[in-house]
Amino acid sequence: MAVNAAGEMRASNLTTTRRWLVLILVSAGSSTIYGPAYLKNAFYDAQQVALGLTNTQIGALLSAYAITATICYLPSGLVADRLRMRTLSATGFLLTAALTFWYATLPSFSTLLLIFVGMGLSTILLWWGVRYKLVRLISEESEYSRNIGVSYGIYGAAGFLVGLVGTLILAQMGSTSPEAFRAFLLFYAALLLALGVLSIVFIPKFVGEVGEFRSVKEVVVDALGALSNPVVLITAITVFFVYFFYTGVNYATTYLGYLGADGTFNNITSVLRQYGVTLLAGPIFGALAHKAKRPSRVIWIGSLIAAFGIAFLAIVPVPASLPAGTGMIVGVASIGVALGFIANGVFGIVSSQLTEGKVSLAVFGAATGVVSLVGFLPDTFSSTWFGSIIDDAAAAGDEGSAYPKIFWILAASAVIAALCAAGLAMYVKRNKVRLDEAYTKAEELAAAAAAARDEHEAVAAR
Fold first, then answer.
1. Long-range pairs for 292-295: beta carbons < 8 A, 24 or more residues apart
2. Which of 294, 324, 401, 462 would bridge with 328, disulfide CB 3.0–4.6 Å?
3. pTM of this structure
4. Among 407, 422, 411, which residue's Cα sits nearest to residue 299?
5. How far is Cα 57 from Cα 383, in angstroms, rounded to an integer?
């Protein structure tokens, strides 16, 4: 296992076991570190009852996290350029663990807002740049595509297993018991603490991981330049609406709770929809996109299917008396899982529109940063919006009327996502020659710049 004088390694220096350990660590960690902030997606009722919050307040917590995250997306690239992956990974895990231990005290709403802002800093500013860069650092160039696919599988498996543990804890101690929710948070915190320690032990120093520093001005200029590219702009808008309905289908969980579904059944359904389907949806939709050779085609078809499914939930009459019958509860749960499968699959391939639109590697980093910045904006407002719709309806004595409204909004979002993806396909088709020429020119310029840099470094080393 060769190292240089600074104790740095390359991917080729690592044993197969060490590579797998790091891959599992960063992939499972990418699922686990965001779990405490997004518990509402799978354990909405347990979180609400344990914390004693309204639906609007539950939404406000995620909005506080998401606004912080939005501010941190672009600076996270600067942080990732300046610090080692071992340092960032360990610090991100350990700070999030500390915040989760604090979260487990079930504090006041104002304190929770502070905790969620803190998690926005620890998970996005510190950790957002870790996963893809670390997978790249442990991979030879020819291995990266395979390893990132394996990483997504581990991500889904880890989320599913952690979710099942949470369901078991809540089932044993009471699905809406504050003590059960506290125990689940303590489990999460302990897991994050272990991941932080393992990061220190297993992630090595890598050659070239701390590169040339980019200034804040350069990052902003790159981002604005990427946004001026129609492909990047259309992709960002597509991701926005795909992410909107992808996260919004989680309100099937809240609807099941309203219908009177058993807490444990609801939790299992939520975990299956949130994480279980990821194991199949990603590979299947990836294979479909590869076969179609146009990811946008799979995206617009999948989004339209999702729109019809969500609209079906909206038009099914809300029962006049509760709890609803077993048939309706099972039916809503089944549709929710199916929608989760489609939404997960579409979301998993939506950023590949950048490749379809011939965005060059030279600006790919800036493009993905812009897509993340715009695409994840729904988190800043959707939960608060939907929570207020539910609270207003409940205050009027008719909570059931809120859910068709939410489902219609989500269906409209899926239709807009389909139109955006179809628009990208049309744009790429009409501008194919120009896009191909621009891509080839950009790659040639990048290769020439790399060759000049290598030559300069070789001369300087003599």
1. 294/356, 294/425, 294/428, 295/349, 295/350, 295/352, 295/353, 295/355, 295/356
2. 324
3. 0.80
4. 422
5. 9
Structural Rg of the chain based on CA atoms: 23
Q: Which of 212, 215, 206 is nearest to 75 (CA)?
A: 215
Amino acid occupying residue 375: G
- With residue 206 as reference, give the H or E element that holds it: strand 205-206
Helix (DSSP H) and strand (DSSP E) numbers for the chain: 20, 2
**225 and 366 Cβ atoms separated by less than 8 Å:** yes
Q: Which residues pair with 8 in a beta bridge?
A: 205
> Residue 140 has which token pair?
């030879």
What is the token pair recorded at 283? 């590979």
Q: Do 92 and 122 touch, CB atoms closer than 8 A?
A: yes
Distance CA 382, CA 117 (A): 17
Q: pLDDT by residue (tens digit) across 76-92? A: 877 877 788 899 999 99
HSE-up (13 A, CA, CB side) for residue 177: 15
Tabulate helix, strand, coil % of the chain (nearest 5).
85, 0, 15
Where does 228-351 have alpha helices with state H?
Answer: 230-248, 251-259, 263-271, 278-292, 295-315, 326-349
Q: Write down all domains in the chain, each with its CATH number in brackets.
A: 9-206 (1.20.1250.20), 214-430 (1.20.1250.20)
Helix (H, G, I), strand (E, B) or coil at 10: coil
Averaged pLDDT for residues 257-265: 89
382-395 and 230-248 are packed helices; what angle lies between their axes, rounded to 10 degrees? 40
What are the CA-CA distances from residue 103 to residues 45, 106, 187, 269, 315 (Å)?
Answer: 17, 6, 12, 25, 38
Map tokens 């960032």 to a residue.
88
pLDDT in tens, 140-191: 756 665 676 678 778 888 988 998 898 888 888 876 789 999 999 999 999 9
Cα four-point dihedral sign 164, 170, 173, 175: negative
DSSP 111-139: HHHHHHHHHHIIIIIITTTHHHHHHHHTS
